[in-house]
């Protein structure tokens, strides 16, 4: 997966920066799960990934709320569903009840599916509101700038 591929870019700079970080954590997780760095490293990355994903969801929801995004509630429900499933998959993996390949596939699948089905439509709405941020330009919306740093 390439986070710079057009299908993964929403056009909102702050959101794209966070997505790129999620993809980097997923790549590191895959390397660790494939045996390169072992189980302790995989568990460390999973803990960081779980925390960052929740922070990312909060940031997106704040941006959508401020922009008056009409799909906010549906989007929020998918975030909550993902957060629950990530938590239970990570718990199962920690307890040795889930194969590493199944965990890696689940993690990659939800990111791709959610960005395509929810984040890209959200980004199109934000772009229509003038909230697309191609770079750290002077007209970046305040909420987006404030929430950009993970
Ligand atoms: Fe997202
Ligand atoms: Fe989202």
UniProtKB/TrEMBL annotation:
<feature type="domain" description="Hemerythrin-like">
    <location>
        <begin position="11"/>
        <end position="122"/>
    </location>
</feature>
<dbReference type="Pfam" id="PF01814">
    <property type="entry name" value="Hemerythrin"/>
</dbReference>
<keyword id="KW-0479">Metal-binding</keyword>
<feature type="region of interest" description="Disordered">
    <location>
        <begin position="130"/>
        <end position="150"/>
    </location>
</feature>
<comment type="similarity">
    <text>Belongs to the hemerythrin family.</text>
</comment>
<dbReference type="GO" id="GO:0046872">
    <property type="term" value="F:metal ion binding"/>
</dbReference>
<keyword id="KW-0408">Iron</keyword>
<feature type="compositionally biased region" description="Basic and acidic residues">
    <location>
        <begin position="139"/>
        <end position="150"/>
    </location>
</feature>
<dbReference type="InterPro" id="IPR012827">
    <property type="entry name" value="Hemerythrin_metal-bd"/>
</dbReference>
<dbReference type="InterPro" id="IPR035938">
    <property type="entry name" value="Hemerythrin-like_sf"/>
</dbReference>
<protein>
    <recommendedName>
        <fullName>Hemerythrin-like domain-containing protein</fullName>
    </recommendedName>
</protein>
<dbReference type="InterPro" id="IPR050669">
    <property type="entry name" value="Hemerythrin"/>
</dbReference>
<dbReference type="InterPro" id="IPR012312">
    <property type="entry name" value="Hemerythrin-like"/>
</dbReference>
């Amino acid at each position: 997966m390439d986070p710079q591929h057009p299908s993964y870019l929403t056009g909102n700079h702050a959101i794209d920066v966070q997505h790129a970080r999620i993809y980097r954590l997923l790549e590191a997780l895959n390397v660790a799960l494939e045996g390169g760095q072992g189980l302790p490293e995989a568990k460390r990355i999973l803990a960081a990934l779980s925390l960052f994903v929740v922070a990312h969801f909060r940031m997106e929801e704040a941006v959508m709320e401020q922009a008056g995004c009409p799909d906010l509630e549906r989007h929020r429900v998918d975030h909550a569903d993902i957060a629950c499933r990530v938590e239970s998959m990570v718990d199962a993996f920690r307890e040795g009840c889930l194969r590493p390949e199944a965990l890696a596939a689940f993690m990659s699948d939800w990111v791709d599916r959610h960005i395509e089905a929810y984040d890209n439509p959200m980004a199109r709405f934000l772009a229509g509101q003038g909230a697309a941020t191609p770079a750290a330009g002077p007209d970046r919306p305040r909420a987006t700038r404030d929430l950009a740093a993970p």
